[in-house]
Amino acid sequence: MNDTLTFQSSRPAPPCTVVIFGASGDLARRKLLPALYNLAHCGQGLMPSNSAVLGFARSAMTQDAFRAAAREAVNKYSRLKIDEGCWRGFADGLYYQSGLDRPDGFKQLKARLEEIERERNIPPNRIYYLSIPPEAFNDCIARLAAEKLIAPPNAGYFTHVVVEKPIGRDLSSAIEISRTLHEHMDESQIFRIDHYLGKETVQNLLVLRFANSIFERLWGSRNVDHVQITVAEAEGVGTRAGYYDHSGALRDMIQNHLLQLLTMLTMEAPVTLDARDIMEAKLNVLRALRPIRGEQARDCTVRARYTEGRIGDTEVRGYLDEQGVARDSRTETFVALKMFIDNWRWSGVPFFIRTGKSLKRRASSIVVQFKGVPRILFNRAGNLHNNLLTLRIQPDEGFSFDVVSKHPGLDLGLKPVRMNLSYSDEFGADSSPDAYERLLLDVMEGDHTLFPSAEYVRTSWEFVQGILDAWKDESIVPIDEYTAGSWGPACADRLIGSIGRGWYEP
Q: Which residues contact 149 (CB under 8 A, 6 or more apart)?
């Protein structure tokens, strides 16, 4: 008997042309091209066979060279193995155009798009994926508009523009980017992508909460002691030092990824599953965040950077010794925050979030610790192990629930046991699509459910800006240090220790 309830089935998206700006870059190679191949794969067929992918970049490259590079990328990074028949169909729709940085580059882009659409008999449905530095967004959008490459929102065909994070580096720049985008297109045409929202565990948050009465009835200050969200990276800054040294962990991870996880975890039930209703529910969480400003940052924030150490068998040099990092850099590679949501459901519950580079291992998780039982019966002799709901986002996606059970035997011994679900064990290793597959398919279909709105981005920056402003005074929150290969600085332990708790290892 098949007990699977299919609530919303995937179907082929409308035929379109996906233009990847910065197609010779790392994101296109590692994520976008493999994801597009998987969508077009014969076994899935979610991207129509007459759709096209046009790489647009500065560097000169022949079409054959681009197709060869794409095959190498798909072979190395794709979830699905290359099937020769599927690959031939996909490769026939791969094109390349140089001139992103030339004065006439966008005019040539327009001519090439029209040529491809005639050749493949597809309507001018176009997706522009801006895999370019944030400082180039405004100019790129203005040049697309100047060449009339952005269709009106009420046309019989669509233009969708995908903007990668970070959306700005502070509140004022985020507002400026939003103003430029809205000057040339409607909000319905803009897709601000955050790949964390495409991960299975993150999407499953809504199902876990609102399709299971047991959890929803426990969800809030009456039963929850505190919540921990950890996004740990084993890698250092690597080749991204030039970008990262002007960004830091607060801008790079907290403003987008971790706040997204927080809002998905704590939002009220949306009125419907419509994108607008879900976004409004998430936005209400941001509106209820208790601001962290000025002296408040001393007790609620931690920032640090890694020093030399060892991760596994690999020696790691300190952040200030990384190539491309300024010797007098004040950039943080680790952030921990103590946060509160001042609404009816979560009043008084502390949320601890942390993220960092060159930590012990790559792992992301959410831990919900429930309140302990009264100090009677089994709890008289000592504190019992708390009930924990752990949501594993990466690398082993799934979730577990810790309960206390009697240990088998004649004595009354109590032991914590774990009920565990691993997606790969339950549904198969290849069952979970890559985050970019889900998100790119949503862009093709015009579904904004997993994409933050302009107001969401602005509100998240308003919260983060308070911390950035407080950090300008290093006497309030100095930059601490931690050894590469550890779980972060001691001051992060003291932060969560302020309520008598400790971090769970993800």
A: 106, 109, 110, 113, 126, 128, 159
Q: Report whether 168 contacts 134 (CB < 8 A).
A: yes
Strand partners, 390: 367, 400
C-alpha torsion 386→387→392→398, nearest 10: 150
pLDDT for position 411: 66
Say how many C-beta atoms besides its own lie within 10 A of residue 476's C-beta. 15
Torsion of CA 72, 73, 75, 81, to 10 degrees: -140
CA 23 to chain centre: 21
Confirm if 210 and 493 have CB atoms less than 8 A apart.
Answer: no
pTM: 0.89
User: What is the rounded distance in angstroms from the CA atom of residue 137 to the CA atom of residue 140?
Assistant: 5
Residue 105 pairs in a beta bridge with none
The pLDDT, as a whole number, for residue 399 is 85
Q: What is the pLDDT of residue 483?
A: 97
Enter the DSSP assignment of 379.
G
52-57 vs 94-98, strand pairing mode: parallel
Can you tell me the distance from the alpha carbon of 36 to that of 52, in angstroms, rounded to the nearest whole number? 10
pLDDT at 377: 61
- Of the candidates 237, 466, 231, which has an alpha carbon nearest to the alpha carbon of residue 329? 237
| 160 CB-near residues (< 8 Å, 6+ apart) | 126, 127, 128, 189, 190, 191, 443, 444, 446
Which residues of the chain fall below pLDDT 70?
Answer: 1-11, 43, 374-384, 405-407, 409-413, 415, 424, 426-432
Asked if residue 367 lies in contact with residue 389, where contact means CB atoms within 8 angstroms, the answer is yes
What lies within 8 Å, CB to CB, of 159 at 6+ separation is: 126, 127, 128, 149, 150, 151, 185, 189
Q: Where are the beta strands (DSSP E) in 441-495?
A: 480-483
Q: Please, which residues bridge with residue 440 across strands?
A: none
Q: How many residues does the chain have?
A: 506
Q: Residue 491's pLDDT is what?
A: 97
Type of residue found at 31: K
Q: 80: closest CA among 28, 51, 43?
A: 43
Q: What is the DSSP letter of 341?
A: B
Residue pair 482/335 in contact by the 8 Å Cβ criterion? no
What's the start-to-end Cα distance of the chain, in Å?
Answer: 36
Give the three-class secondary structure for 406: strand
Instruction: Kindly list the catalytic residues.
Output: 257
Beta strands 388-394 and 159-164 are unpaired
Structural tokens at position 371: 């309140």
